[in-house]
Amino acid sequence: MKKFAKNFMLGAATAAHQVEGNNIHSDYWAQEQLPHSMFNEPSLDAVDHYNRYTEDIRLLAEAGLNAYRFSIEWARIQPKPDAWDEKEVEHYRAVLKCCHENGVKPIVTMHHFSSPKWLISQGGWENPETVKKFAAYCKRLVSELGDQMEYVCTINEANMRLQLAALMQDMMKRMQAHSDQEGTGGKKSESDVQVGINMNQENMMLSMMETAQAFGIQDPRKVHTFVSQCTPEGDLLVMRAHEAARDAMKEACPHLKIGLTLSLHDMQPYPGGETFAGKEWDDEFLHYLPFIKNDDFLGVQCYTRKHFDKDGVTQPAADVRRTQMGYEDYPSAIANVVRKVAEDFKGDLIVTENGIATEDDARRCEFVKEAAEGIQACIEDGIPVKGYMYWLLLDNFEWQKGYGMTFGLIAVDRSTQTRTAKESLSVLGCLIER
To answer: Are strands 67-71 and 105-111 parallel, antiparallel or unpaired?
Structure first.
């Protein structure tokens, strides 16, 4: 099998809340503790990456990987609106230095779904003031740590809120059509959104009310976490926050290469489904182009494909191979999406997430090889793909799904926090020239 060039960034990714543990000042932590929480289980110590990052980065490097994408937790740095925790800043400085000491290039994400609890209490991701608050946080942080950074993602999956809004609207159609003898209604499912969520209608209303109480908000419809449905204005607010943060960080550290990441699907229409596929691609990608045209790169994230017929999105057949997340197991999707993105975005591309949730590591090994072959073909065709980050480094806390999803290249026994590298880690590490 062909190998990536030495200067290609080949690595794995994590997100702070999913791996660090005890992120007690975040909105996610608050939601996990509710009596009628939508979470299967709370994150608690997670996989203790906060204390074990040295071991984890060393395992990554020893396998031959040269890049690590991780996020800095805003809620740790600013646990209160007027606080700035220098001890936590120094923690992340140590993580960055550990990367460099092991020959690993850090790719830093400034916001990966979780937010400070106080931000949500102040209106969250529908409050225009969030744009300024996020930009100020990013500027101050890179002013202190920017000398250790090169690649920075402002916001992970900046289009996620719009995807969730579409899913919620579809769910409401199904509820309204429940008694319809013809069975009309929505056709989407949890697996249409590339994040671990639960759509348990029985718990949802109680959870919404308890969530509002937890954030000191009277109306549950006015709780605006990042991973919640949004208005069209809220969707654009995220992009304005990205632009403001990018420009603020560039002012503080002109050397930084800054972009964001988007959650994308490989849109595949059957005859008659072309209009639906085009509309969904516009929603997921094209309408964001004006906001990212001045970025240094785009982080492309894809796990599966979507099919469309004359009635809209269709669910995979019952006999299609699926991942633990319910997605169709389709490793060709990432290369297809990279090619589609490159038609309109002419800057550098980094695959910031792509992976498979499965207990079968032999299947993970094959998935990695197939995805890598697709990316190598994109590079040979002149598409400027600069890196590939497998999701994810460690089996971890998959948001509302809890610890049942196993994406990782490294297994973790959470009773002892013992790490065991899987064969897939070495398979990925062998795909680059040394």
So the answer is: parallel
- Which residues share a beta bridge with 314? 307
pLDDT, average across residues 25-54: 97
Q: Would you give the distance in Å from CA 35 to the centre of its chain? A: 27
Measured distance CA(128)–CA(123) in Å, rounded: 9
Distance CA 119, CA 115 (A): 7
Tell me how many domains the chain contains: 1
Name 293's Cβ contacts closer than 8 Å, sequence gap at least 6: none
Domain for residue 170, yes or no?
yes
Residue 247 lies inside a defined structural domain of this protein: yes
Rounded to 5 degrees, what are φ and ψ at 420?
-135, 115
Residue 397 lies in a domain: yes
- With vertex at residue 204, the alpha carbon angle to CA 198 and CA 205, rounded to the nearest 5 degrees, is 170
Backbone angles phi, psi at 269, to 5 degrees: -85, 140
What are the tens digits of pLDDT across the range 266-281?
Answer: 999 999 999 999 999 9
In this structure, is residue 3 part of a structural domain?
no
Segment among 22-31, 221-230, 407-416 with least mean pLDDT? 221-230
Quote the CA–CA distance of 114 and 26 in Å, as a whole number: 6
Contacts made by residues 283-290, CB under 8 angstroms, sequence distance 24+: 283/159, 283/162, 283/163, 283/166, 284/159, 284/162, 284/163, 285/159, 285/340, 285/341, 285/344, 286/344, 288/158, 288/159, 288/239, 288/262, 289/344, 289/345
Q: Which helix (H) or strand (E) holds 312?
A: strand 312-314
- Give the type of residue at 41: E
CATH at residue 173 = 3.20.20.80
Q: What pLDDT score was predicted for residue 229? A: 80
Residue with tokens 């999406």: 337
Q: Output the six-digit token pair for 163.
A: 């995807």
Confidence at 202, pLDDT banded by 50, 70, 90: low
Identify the band that residue 228 occupies on the pLDDT scale cut at 50, 70 and 90: confident
Q: Tokens 């389709």 — which residue?
A: 330
In which domain, by residue range, is 80 found?
9-429
pTM of whole model > 0.90?
A: yes
Q: Which two tokens stand for residue 230?
A: 């949004």
